[in-house]
Design a protein that fits this description.
Structural class: alpha/beta
Number of strands: 5
Radius of gyration: 15 Å
Strand order of the largest sheet: 3-2-4-1-5
Number of helices: 4
Distance between the termini: 27 Å
Shape: globular
Mean pLDDT: 82
Order of helices and strands: EHEEHEHEH
Helix content: 25-40%
Low-confidence stretches: none
C-alpha cells in the first residue's frame, strides 16, 4: 500500500520560495492527493518537497503527500472544530481509503511567535 504523509501547519509547511530549473523536482514516485485521488506531484506543491525526495531515494517506494497547510494561520485555527483542522482530518480520511498514513508532519510559522502566544502554544498543540 502507498505510504502517505499528512502535511499541516502554517507557511513554513506550505513551502515558499522561487522555483527555477535548478531546484524543480520531478519524480513520478512522488504523488499528491487531489480530490481524493493520487496525481503526480507538480510544483509549487504547497508542501515540503525535500522530504518526499529523500523518502523515495532511501526507500525506492512511491510516496503520497497530503498537503493541508495554510500560510498565515495560527494554532487557534488548527483546533478541533475549526475549518483548518476539519479540512486536514477530511483529507486524511480520504487518503486512508487508498494509502497508509505513516505520519502527520506539523510545521508552524511565525503567527504564534510572540511571548504571549508562545506561552499557550504547547497546550493548544497537545489539544490539536
Amino acid at each position: 500500500m502507498l505510504s502517505s504523509f499528512l502535511l499541516i501547519g502554517q507557511s513554513n509547511m506550505s513551502g515558499r520560495g522561487i522555483l527555477n530549473a535548478d531546484n524543480r523536482i520531478f519524480d513520478a514516485r512522488i504523488l499528491r492527493l487531489v480530490n481524493g485521488r493520487w496525481q503526480t506531484m507538480w510544483e509549487p506543491l504547497s508542501a515540503d518537497r525535500v522530504f518526499a525526495v529523500e523518502f523515495v531515494k532511501r526507500t525506492g517506494e512511491q510516496v503520497g503527500l497530503i498537503p493541508a497547510s495554510d500560510g498565515g494561520s495560527s494554532i487557534d485555527e488548527w483546533q478541533p472544530g475549526e475549518a483548518l483542522y476539519d479540512h486536514a482530518v477530511s483529507e486524511a480520511r480520504l487518503a486512508m481509503r487508498i494509502s497508509d498514513i505513516k505520519a502527520v508532519l506539523w510545521h508552524q510559522g511565525e503567527a504564534d511567535c510572540n511571548p504571549a502566544r508562545a506561552a499557550v502554544y504547547a497546550p493548544k498543540f497537545l489539544h490539536m
